[in-house]
What we know:
By secondary structure, the chain is an alpha/beta fold. Helix content is 29%, strand content 19%. It is built from ten helices and 13 strands. The protein has helices at 17-32, 83-91, 140-145, 168-179, 197-201, 216-221, 232-239, 251-260, 275-279, 293-302, and strands at 2-9, 36-43, 59-60, 73-78, 96-99, 110-113, 128-131, 155-159, 185-189, 208-210, 225-228, 244-246, 266-267.
Amino acid sequence: MKNILFFTEIYKDLGSGNLVRSLHLLNFLKKKSPEFKLFLSIDDSGLIHETNLLDNKVDVVSLNELKNFFFDCVIYDSSNPKIENINFLNNISEKIVALDFFNYEIQINSIINLYCHNSHNLHKFKGNLYSGLKYAIISEKIIKSKIKKNNFRKRILVSFGGEDPKNNTIKALDYLRRLKDNSFSVRVIVGELNKSKKEILKYNKLFKVTGHTNKIHEIYKKTDLIICGGGTTLLEALFLNIPAIVLPQNKFEEKFVLDISKNTNIFELSNLSNTSKIFELMNNSDKIVDGMGMRRICKIISN
């Protein structure tokens, strides 16, 4: 039996989106490849331990215990890669597969990412590179909940993840409030680590504001337009054919969104003043994000 370690780094002010992504992949691999024994280790660097996410019946190994193991493969996922961790993992594993990684000066076996940031350094990388939206990780719940919509009811969802460091939630809500358009309904999901959470909750008089939910797949069924950042929520919107207004959260998202907007129905916030233009457009973006990403990644891991 092969031993596979999922090693995830999450950081204060960067949220735990990559941990959620790793858990989706871990659970998928557990179902599809029972010949693998799976382990999980988290370097949380001071972030509150996300115990609610760890209901996977997976063996969790502490950082101190890892030196007693040897793994056939490590799946490494980090918001801010630590070279010391990568060096350590190289010593306790046969191979490393890095997710959403674009530091091509670090020599590891395989990199899987959605977009080739820092491509000017690509010539320095000697391993295997798998890049593109076909490797997007979409949860099985969302894949199973996909429905074909025949009409738009002008239902807007505003969601900027757990942290929203640029306060884009408030920017979007202020814009919606100024429009004074009663023809659409607005639902807002505010992350637990959002520093402006109290201020956002005050908008509950105008819009429906709720906290983190494990039933986002059900909310998507009742959503006709999403206002979000350039991360996981955008990928889910593309898969579900839901038009998106995108406010990137960082320079990497800006570049990523600019590139994929050429082939998808992604809009700027100013387009909300002409809602008919948005709601009349049907999206064919599921041809770009097809929901097969986890299957492709698991094949790479198995090989």
